[in-house]
Design a protein that fits this description.
By secondary structure, the chain is of the alpha/beta class. The chain is built from nine helices and 14 strands. A hairpin with a 4-residue loop joins strand 13 (about 310-315) and strand 14 (about 320).
Length: about 325
């Protein structure tokens, strides 16, 4: 099936058409590591921060980054996690915010942030994945800024979870995205393939599927009209992926979507079963669908900018940004 689709020129998710690009990083820049969701292992965090330092960055830790709430699944109180995030964003000495890990809890801080104060600050890089999907959507909708869906210091992307060195490809592409973003405009992986052939152009949006579906009905959620939707997840069996996609379809989130790109499906069952679900649920949209791009929870993690215009060529297996993600 070849998709013949012209993106709807109407409004894009979160007002994405006019998103501001943060400036690129330079050696010596100060970056803040915060933990908006679940608690981190101190050893893994230390190892990941050493990788950031090796990139030539000065790392500072949020005041509450090592906190742990009694529940065991939150990195301290909601107010403490929100304070770290807001303080770092509003501090002109900080060039980027790097989330230590995902887990759960980022959505709980959204109503505790002073969006007015944050909107008055100069935009900066926000890097994170998984549960950080909630922040990506909110920063697009409320601050109008491009963000980066990518590896985090206390996770497998930095080698921390496996006790190994970071994957060289992951680190090289992250470095290029942060310091020389014009060298990281084409996103491709060895095992990409088209589930639905075709080409499309749109603004990138999405992240972890369960987080996108879980935000339906919230102020930050808006339809993916004219967008390239990107999805991945971890620990969701095929029937649950079906349920999440069905929720998005029935809610109208896919209305006018230009194309879809899927990443890794870690611990989600046999990939052929997952892709059968993707094909069944997404083919009726009549838009290009590219599967197997290496972003998500796997050991090889591309850094994918959200809120930038991109060309999707499912036949060639590429997603190409029309401009660098950072200025």
């Amino acid at each position: 099936m070849t998709a013949l689709f012209e993106p709807d020129p109407g409004p894009l998710p979160g007002g994405a058409r006019g998103l501001r690009r943060p400036r690129r990083l330079r050696p010596g820049d100060r970056v803040a590591v915060v933990c908006p969701g679940s608690p981190v292992d101190p050893g893994r965090l230390h190892a990941g921060c050493a990788v950031l330092s090796d990139l030539g960055l000065e790392v500072v830790l949020g005041a509450h980054v090592l906190d742990r709430q009694e529940s065991g699944y939150l990195a301290g109180t909601d107010r403490g996690r929100a304070r770290d995030l807001e303080d770092a964003w509003c501090d002109p000495a900080i060039a980027a915010i790097v989330c230590a890990r995902g887990g759960y809890g980022a959505a709980r801080v959204l109503d505790l942030l002073s969006w007015e104060a944050m909107a008055a600050a100069e935009p900066k890089v926000l890097l994170g994945a998984s549960d950080v999907t909630a922040l990506h959507a909110a920063f697009a909708a409320r601050l109008g800024v491009v963000t980066l869906f990518g590896p985090m210091p206390a996770t497998a992307g930095f080698g921390a979870a496996a006790g190994k060195a970071p994957d060289p490809g992951t680190l090289a592409q992250l470095r290029a995205t942060l310091f020389a973003p014009e060298d990281a405009v084409e996103l491709a992986s060895p095992d990409v393939h088209a589930l639905v052939a075709g080409r499309a152009r749109g603004v990138t949006t999405g992240g972890t599927l369960s987080l996108v579906a879980g935000s339906i009905g919230c102020p930050e959620s808006s339809p993916a009209t004219g967008a390239i939707a990107l999805f991945e997840d971890i620990g969701e069996q095929p029937y649950r992926i079906d349920r999440l996609l069905t929720q998005l379809l029935r809610s109208g989130w896919f209305a006018g979507v230009a194309g879809v790109v899927t990443g890794t499906w870690t611990d989600c069952g046999p990939v052929e079963r997952v892709e059968a679900v993707l094909r069944d649920r997404l083919s009726p949209l009549g838009v290009p669908v590219l599967a197997g791009l290496s972003f998500g929870h796997g050991p090889r993690q591309l850094t994918v900018p959200l809120g930038v215009e991109a060309d999707l060529d499912a036949d060639a297996g590429t997603l190409t940004l029309t401009a660098a993600a950072l200025r």
